[in-house]
Design brief:
Length: about 325
Amino acid sequence: MAIPILLFILGLVLLIKGGDWFVDGATGIAHRFHIPELLIGATVVSIGTTLPEVMVSATSAVSGHGEMAYGNAIGSIICNTSLIAALTVAIRPSRAERKTLTLPVAFFFLAAVLYSAVAYFYGYFSRGVGILLLALFALYLFLSIRRVKRAPTQQEEEPEQFEKRSPLLKDILFLVLGAALIAVGADLLVDNGTLIAERLGVPESVIALTFVALGTSLPELVTAITSLVKGHGSLSLGNVIGANLFNLVLVNGVSTVLSPFAVPSSKLVAGINASLLIDIPVMLLVMLLLTVPTLIRQKLSRTQGILLLCIYAAFCTVQFVL
């Protein structure tokens, strides 16, 4: 047990340093090209921090553990929203521009409707569904890039600001190295965290929705905390929303194309599949609570954060009680 614990700690250290470099690189690129931080967070940063989910879920699906891939994606969305975003909102609520937030939120709920319809009416994620999810991912990236190109450029920066800006190559290097450290750190943390959990006798479905989901969401958590400390709250919010979208369309898309799987039915509540009764509804609920009030008021409130944290605590409790 000593070696898994040491590797778990090493993974955590790599995540923290990787998150620091990743945020520095992303914000440097955003400022250089006058791109809103929220948009950078919802695209570039989200892809980087979603890499652990892609690797874990794809590996699980190919090895015949569809339940792990399915639970990891949904659990990560719930964790991202009701733990990571909730913590940042509860600590330091920030403003959010509606025009920048609309596209990722709209795509998330479009993907969520498709995902839920397949789960409730078919109960099986075929390769065709996976291809459709990946097509939504490609469309989202295309529209995001087109929006940036069409955005009016800001006024020329003052010479002093230009001189203080870090070189582009350095920003890119920080972004790539940060993503690599995050991926390696998350892999170490998930593998050894899961091993520790299994030795304690925790079921696979619960591990997927809680331990693995939390482990693969740690890059988002590290990025969120680092962004908060550095005063980039918009980057954190964009990262969480973008990562949630990518969990549905990229993580599930890749997993399903590689190895189609059925909706897990190992847990029942009153004779009903617990995933359909609890997991998917909670996923939709927490995203609605995070995004709808924010779109209306163009700012986040501490009340949202506290409420989401309560929901996450209740969700984890139910998972271990069932």
